[in-house]
Amino acid sequence: MIVGWEGPDDPENPMNWASSRKTFTIQPYFQPLVHLVANTKINRSLASTIFAPGVPKLMAEFGSTSSELASFVVSAYIVPFILGPLVFAPLSELYGRNVVMNSSNVAFLIFTVLCAVSQNMAMFVVFRVLQGLAGCVPLTLGGGTIADLMPAEKRGRALSGWQLGPLLGPVLGPVIGGYIAQEAGWRWMFWLVAILSGILAGGCLLVRETYAPTLLARKVARLRKETGNPNYTLPATQGQGRSPGVLFRRAIFRPLKMLFRSPIVLFMALEVSIVYAYLYLLFTTFTFVFRVQYGFGSGAAGLAYLGLGVGFLVGLFGTGSTSDYIAKKRAAGAAIKPEHRLPPLMFGVILVPLGLFWYGWTAEYKVHWMAPIAGTSLIGLGVLFVFMPIQAYLIDAFTIYAASAIATNTVVRSLFGAVLPLAGQPMYAKLGLGWGNSLLAFIALATVPLTWVLMKNGERIRSSPCFRVDLN
């Protein structure tokens, strides 16, 4: 006997949870679980950059003068994002979201404390990498959680609220960290993150599982126990009868199959990776640029990150309020297709290089400090217009396997984000801020024609038998 939901209105189906449980203070369609996930993401993302203004003090304490190492101690946090999502996304699709999330919360708290008490550079870097390994889980699972909870016509708004975490966290981090570094030292940055982690970890213990296959598997086990009938079973597509080892092997290769057999997934991963790498290059160089060019102290240097934050907020509001509307309008009464999410993408791939030109040349000639910060606002706005449509596309296209699709994206962008910042200061030393950022802008402009092709022919490419991927 195949077990499923008790009709389309089954209250146990996360899609049908009461509206009061799907309400978030800011986002009307946010369920409290997503609120906690989003806040956990803010804390994990805050951890990625809060340390940036304190780098000079850490380098001085541990006796290092290497500019590459100074960049790496910030970007080391995202090195595990290259492989971690390939493990955590499949685990969440085998055992559910909660067990993976709660385990990562405990690990993140432990490694954050160990960063705070590190006694030498090697010790710090090791625990910083392990902190990032635990920190990648909310960013990997969040998209899948939205797919669990929200129908397609409401996902755009929910996604914009979920993105508050990974985008505002890295901006708020240096603002807070700048003054903590100035007044209390770099170690207190990690103590603050540890305190927040403990509070949020406790909150996450109260939330319910959202992944439908896991909930149905529990229902099967309950029915077998209550009735003594072993014939209750899951649909074959959900892995009933296969060993956990077989299921995990299939699941762990699922993101790689998406990446290498779907040209659209590959291109989207590369497009996001370029702007993400630029973002982390800016995160790791802002402190040095504004201290050298404008004489900012540790506290004031953190404020330089607010330009990106303004761009992020405007972009989140814009995409959050229009994404579902645009998709419904383009669908014209029919079912919403993933391609209906893509129109804002073209604005993003133009705004990012425009902002880089503005930021680079105004900083090069030491125009008033508000000018380069205004340029970074354009970059932040463009990044949102790249991130949001692509994330929404992946969630709509892969639904039950959305976590694996997001993992694919996260792996590639994290590889770029970990490596490119190491070249930031040497590039600026060689080319200057003007031509250095112009080089980045020209590379970003090269994606414009490919974006146009994707928007015009995406559905035909996605549905082509040549690129159809069996994910089961």
TrEMBL record:
GO terms for molecular function: transmembrane transporter activity. It is found in: Membrane. The chain crosses the membrane at residues 69-94, 106-126, 132-152, 164-182, 188-207, 264-290, 302-321, 342-361, 367-388, 400-423, 435-455. One of its GO terms (cellular component) is membrane. Residues 33-461 form the Major facilitator superfamily (MFS) profile domain. Pfam families: MFS_1. Keywords: Membrane, Transmembrane, Transmembrane helix. InterPro entries: MFS, MFS_dom, MFS_trans_sf. Signal peptide: none annotated. The keyword Membrane applies. It is a multi-pass membrane protein. The keyword Membrane applies. Belongs to the major facilitator superfamily. This is MFS general substrate transporter. It comes from Canariomyces notabilis.
